[in-house]
Backbone:
């Protein structure tokens, strides 16, 4: 089973260089390694200083690189559905070229790139899969899609499919509109299944780690903290923070103020992300391009350690008994209680932090136990489940909102 390492961070922090250096070091340690770029604005080929394509390309012994390509991915994962959507748009009067362009849903190309992760894992050709992901905001949006897809597949898709089976013959004869065939729905099920499989792999703490790359700048640190929270919210395990481009003590007078600012921010980063470890990489005196410089970058980050190792292991949430009830603890670092809103609908617990929302399916043991209270303890959201007379009937099936 392949080890999966996903690098993300604010645009421009050097995550591509760190991902490439990790892949090169892992390959030199004997792992069959692929470095996959899922960022629409690829720079992995520039980092290795050699051309890469939509299929894996051998770079060095044990090392392959891949820059996923939009049209290649869409044809591979979206082709059947796209053809139907295009036919409907043409029926509405759009020319064939415009209909084909409009049939690609926003974000589908980036999502198809992420599906390569599951494909490489399932093929079993690689020991380590290093992912150079898109900047954090885009990556978080894409990583939240599997849960949305699962909900659609379970709640809406069967109804929509049944209605189409009953009404398609009549509507097609009356209007002439192309109607979805069984193959379209099958293709949709397969796509949702791939999304769910990808989510299972990326949320498996025995396989996957998210690693956040940042610079010692206030805006970058704040975004890294937000992304760290959201990764916890969606159950994606993080095992390492990499602080890149740290200025050396002898940086000179020109960089003096910048160096002082980095020194002020460093303790804050180290403390804020604890217990997840933080490692540093210097601001090199030349551009990090090609194998020689990537090897140096990997050496300063990992030293003698295995780059594919797990540097921290933790659970996104835990459930345990307490005083006749149950407590569900969910780590939400860098979040205040005023930012959190909770709702419960049967076996679904909806947790909203700012503009991000997660539907958490409750463990079976909590299905018939009402939600009693919620509170924050040391950046951990603690939700109490207790069958008491004081518990609101709404907590058994209806919504319950709170900002406690």
Residues:
């Amino acid at each position: 089973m392949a080890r999966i390492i996903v690098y993300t961070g604010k645009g421009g922090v050097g995550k591509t260089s760190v991902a490439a250096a990790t892949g090169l070091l892992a390959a030199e340690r004997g792992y069959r390694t692929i470095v996959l770029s899922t960022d629409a604005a690829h720079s992995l080929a520039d980092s290795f200083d050699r051309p890469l394509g939509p299929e894996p390309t051998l770079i060095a012994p044990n090392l392959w690189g891949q820059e996923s390509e939009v049209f290649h991915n869409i044809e591979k994962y979206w082709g059947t559905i796209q053809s139907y959507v295009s036919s409907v748009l043409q029926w509405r009067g759009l020319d064939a070229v415009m209909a084909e362009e409009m049939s690609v849903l926003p974000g589908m190309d980036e999502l198809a790139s992420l599906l390569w992760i599951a494909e490489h894992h399932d093929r079993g050709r690689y020991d380590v899969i290093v992912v150079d992901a898109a900047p954090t905001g885009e990556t978080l949006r894409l990583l939240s899609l599997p849960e949305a897809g699962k909900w659609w597949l379970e709640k809406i898709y069967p109804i929509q499919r049944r209605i189409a089976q009953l009404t398609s013959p009549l509507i097609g004869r009356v209007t002439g509109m192309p109607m979805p065939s069984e193959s379209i729905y099958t293709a949709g099920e397969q796509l949702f299944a791939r999304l769910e499989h990808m989510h299972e792999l990326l949320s498996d703490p025995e396989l996957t780690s998210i690693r956040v790359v940042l610079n010692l700048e206030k805006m970058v640190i704040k975004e890294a903290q937000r992304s760290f929270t959201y990764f916890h919210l969606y159950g994606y395990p993080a095992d390492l923070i990499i602080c890149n481009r740290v200025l050396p003590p002898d940086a000179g007078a020109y960089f003096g103020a910048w160096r002082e600012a980095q020194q002020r921010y460093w303790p804050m980063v180290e403390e804020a992300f604890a217990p997840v470890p933080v490692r540093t990489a210097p601001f090199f005196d030349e551009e990090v391009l090609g194998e020689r410089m990537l090897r140096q970058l990997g050496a300063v980050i990992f030293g003698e350690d295995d780059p594919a190792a797990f540097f921290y292991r933790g659970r996104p949430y835990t459930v345990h008994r307490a005083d006749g009830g149950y407590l569900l603890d969910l780590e939400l670092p860098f979040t205040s209680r005023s930012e959190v809103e909770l709702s419960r609908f049967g076996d679904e617990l909806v947790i909203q932090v700012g503009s991000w929302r997660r539907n958490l399916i409750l463990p079976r043991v909590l299905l018939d136990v009402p939600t009693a209270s919620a509170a924050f303890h040391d950046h951990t959201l603690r939700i109490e489940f207790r069958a008491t007379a004081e518990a609101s009937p709404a907590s058994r099936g209806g919504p319950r909102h709170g900002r406690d």
Residues 61 and 264 are 42 Å apart (CA to CA). The chain has two domains: 1-314, 317-396. Residues 389-404 have pLDDT under 50 and may be disordered.
